[in-house]
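The passage that follows is intended for readers who have already worked through the single-chain material. We present the inputs for a multi-component assembly, then the predicted structure in tokenized form, and finally a short commentary. You are encouraged to pause after the input and sketch how you expect the pieces to fit together before reading on.
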Amino acid sequence: MEGRSLFLGLIGSPYESDMFTTASRLVDETVRRRHHVTVWACGYSTALTLRGLGDSRPRNPWSWDTVYPSTAAVVQGMLAYADGRLEWLVCRFCAEERGSTDQMPGVRIEPPANFQRRALAADVCLMLGVK
Amino acid sequence: MTARATLIVVERSHRGTLEQQYAHVLWLVRSLRRQASATLLLRGAAAVYAVDHAAPEPLRLAGRAWGIAPDYRETLQQLTEDGAEVLVFADSLAALGFCRQPLVPGVRPVTEQDIVAAWPKYDRIWFL
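Having made your guess, compare it with the prediction:
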């Protein structure tokens, strides 16, 4: 496999901090340098890639015709750009616990027991957020 | 019906650039003010919003720009243009190291004593 592997755990919730923004920038730069990234979303981070989010956020009444991408669209864009060097995994336990199992295409729901296996297999492991 | 005086206190900052984009807490304050007048007080980490700064660039990921980054300065300016009173807690600015920085035009720094003295004139105090 070309490059090194990064395991990135997202444990915190969206709309609480800039965790998702930071993670997205890390993913983008790592993939751009031709390394591989596995994102593991736990807790309310499982909501970032819900199918129901669609491609865009609700309309802005102050700027009606502007289209703002959803978090799911951002992840979709990164998956397409990464050309196989990014996988986005969602913890089944957390997703079921929060009713967020209906994930967008390209995202895989994994059994929680795979968390440690995936983390240990990576060259670098970084966890962001607090459950 | 008697007009109610509302003080909206914002203490937390940076709650998701990519998630929120336009719909950040100051946008919410502006939207609420369309229906009822309110004073905005920035304190804690949110005092950073009052510091004058350049408009943010959209985030570039996967070789392209995505949406917009929250523009707190622009929204504060819109709020003051709407006629809102916008206050920032001076102690919070000092704690963040911004006490000598220029503020967004129209934003007024206040002390703890100012806030305590003004508190009774508000009958609704919301922490957003």
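Commentary: Chain B touches chain A at residues 14-23, 27, 30-31, 59-64, 66-68 (CB under 8 Å). The longest helix of chain B spans residues 72-81. How closely did your sketch match?
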